[in-house]
Amino acid sequence: MPSRLSRRGFLGAAGIAGLSTAGAGAAGEAAGAAAGSVKVVGVACSPRKGKTSLAALRVALEAAKAVDPRIEVEAVELAGLQIPGQVALGLPLGPGEKDDFPSVYEKLTDPKVGGIIVATPVYFSGMSYLCKAFLDRLMVARKGSFALSDKVAGVLAVGGVRNGGQELSIQGVQNALLCQEMIIVGDGRPTAHTGGTVWNPGTDDVSKDEFGLSTARNLGRRVAQVALKLAASSK
């Protein structure tokens, strides 16, 4: 995927774990795998640090990583970060207000990144306020020559009941990512619907939601598979 040469200049104006292949074969083969690696970054958009959105996202990323030795994964948690939404409108930060979005944006626009998975909790059948602020701030990607164009995107949502608005939340995030010229995928076979739909039964433990976690795994696998195909076709 070509690098966006103007990205750093634009970011400055706007204020804006690798997977080892050792032991799998000869040193030359390992170097070749590293050279052709594709990264999948997951963004957990819950304001609650280390909770169910991150847990479900990690399941998806582990499934992505298992697809191929060339896949690298990284989880980014927005909980505890300051993502001021008004900057997307060109409004200034408040006195002493911190902005952590630039470091997140830099990870997403790395040319090595071929796939992005966004995870959000469900609030009243919609995404979290932190997820919305994050997506609003991605306005900079459109202005930056569509810096996320042709990256693969998948979405998962964690709701308080089985049918608690997960699919509506997923579709809302997908709509925003479509505006970035991203390639949207759902969870792959055999579930193959809009994305990862996970249930938190109120215990902050999603480990027993076998169906929901299967959709998260299928989503991670699908994002990785498509990202690898696109990387191969661009050579």
- Described by the principal axes of the CA atoms, the overall outline is globular
| Rg over CA atoms | 17 Å
Q: Kindly report the name of the CATH homologous superfamily.
A: Flavodoxin domain
Helix content: 25-40%
Listing every helix as H and every strand as E from the N terminus to the C terminus, the arrangement reads HHEHEHEHHEHEEH
Major sheet details: 6 strands, parallel
The amount of beta strand, in percent, is 15-25%
- The fold-level CATH name is Rossmann fold
* Structural domain count: 1
Number of helices: 8
> Ends: how far apart?
8 Å
Report the structural category: alpha/beta
Reading off the top of the CATH hierarchy, the class is best stated as Alpha Beta
Mean pLDDT: 88
Low-confidence stretches: 1-33
CATH architecture: 3-Layer(aba) Sandwich
List how many beta strands DSSP finds.
6
Features:
8 helices, globular, 38% helix, alpha/beta, 16% strand, Rossmann fold, 235 residues
